[in-house]
Amino acid sequence: MNAVNNLALERESRVGNIAFIDLKAQQKVIRDRVEKRLIAVLDHGRYIAGPEIDELEQTLAQKTGAKHCIACSSGTDALIIPMMGMQMTRADAVFIPAFTYNATANAVLVAGATPVFVDIDPYTLNMCPKDLERRVDEAKAAGLTPRMVLAVDLFGVPADYPALGAIASAHNMRVMGDGAQSFGGKQSGNWVGNITPITGVSFFPGKSLGAYGDGGATFTNDDEVAEWCTSIRWHGTDEARANSVRVGINGRMATFQAAVLLEKNAIFWDELEVRKKVARTYDARLGNIAELQSIPDGTESGYGYYTLQIDERDTVREKMNEIGVPTAIYYKTPLHQMEAFTEFAPESGLPNAEKATSRVLSLPMHPYLTEEQTDFVCEALLASYKAA
Ligand SMILES: *Cc1c(COP(=O)(O)O)cnc(C)c1O
């Protein structure tokens, strides 16, 4: 019998079921408090713009240190809404990494601008500042006006904002962070939400701070951007909500979701410590066989996901599956090779993004993993890699 088969036989009795993300275990912890919150909403009946929305916005602004938090209907809308405020056209360029979830590119296109794909740094897997400079020059030569750098904090690691911000200022661009995976992350002492002038966060159920449905929030220190967000999420109306002052959308968060998020946030910060502990175990035990995502000094991951790069990734993943350890591939295809976005693909290709898609593997990451389960995931990966 080989090690993979042995682990497959032992898994159930040793560690039970390992979930990739365990929302059930979390719900058990907060069920009573969430029920009370939901009943309160049923009682006051303000399903839209209820008091829980204000409470959530204030709580999250205070925790992150951002001046404004504007709740909205999804993480994608949290990116679209501030870009709509900028009133961009296809002649305006928004620079995004090629290795991210498709929502980042969709947001730029829905907001009316042109996405320009930038390659990633092969170690951090985030937008490469050097490649950004090259793409800005190319965009200008093609007649586009650089307007915004929309970097992504992939898997939870804040992008290199000091370097990206310097390039953005040199070309008169705004900076926005796609923090859909990085809530709870830090850079230079600042929490995600208060690292960049604008940050979009997602509360999709599977994100580390997740609602029980869709939700998102835009964080900003800029009063003008905050005003855009409040207006645009409510059909572009003025404060009295009587008159349209700009084009808007229905981008509101449901009060029920804010009610859930308030209880989720109350345990999020302790959960984050467990996520970090799981990550430390993975780092210590797997660094010999896989390339870990590098996290620069002064930067802390929010560990939305735990993703490493490994040889023979697909075979390793099959063997993990045989053992009963769930894994995921974020992401199999770089955006510039997806049908919807190929017209924006640079002729040069984006080699680091392309290479990463063939090597990345995401491991179970949630705060309800036991030490035994975390160790078992490591054992399973070591055995799978050896057998691959
Ligand atoms: C999840 C995600 C989004 C979109 O968030 P939704 O709430 O699903 O709209 C955007 N960008 C990244 C990087 C994401 O992971």
Model description:
This protein has 388 residues and is an alpha/beta fold. The protein folds into 2 domains: 9-22 and 268-387, Aspartate Aminotransferase, domain 1, CATH 3.90.1150.10; 29-262, Type I PLP-dependent aspartate aminotransferase-like (Major domain) (Aspartate Aminotransferase, domain 2, 3-Layer(aba) Sandwich), CATH 3.40.640. It is 44% helix and 14% strand. It is built from 12 helices and 13 strands. The strands form 3 sheets. Strands 1-9-8-5-4-2-3 form a 7-stranded mixed β-sheet, sandwiched between helices. Strand 2 (92-97), helix 5 and strand 3 form a beta-alpha-beta unit. Helix 9 crosses helix 12. The longest helix has 32 residues, at 255-286. It is globular. Residues 74-76, 100-101, 103-104, 152, 178, 180-181, 202, 204, 214, 216 line the site of pyridoxal-5'-phosphate.
What is the gist of this entry?
One of its GO terms (biological process) is polysaccharide biosynthetic process. The chain has 388 residues and is α/β, with parallel strands linked by helices. It has helices at residues 3-15, 23-44, 51-64, 75-85, 102-110, 129-141, 161-170, 223-232, 255-286, 313-323, 351-357, 371-387; strands at residues 68-72, 92-97, 114-118, 145-152, 174-178, 186-187, 190-191, 198-202, 216-220, 291-292, 299-300, 306-309, 360-363.
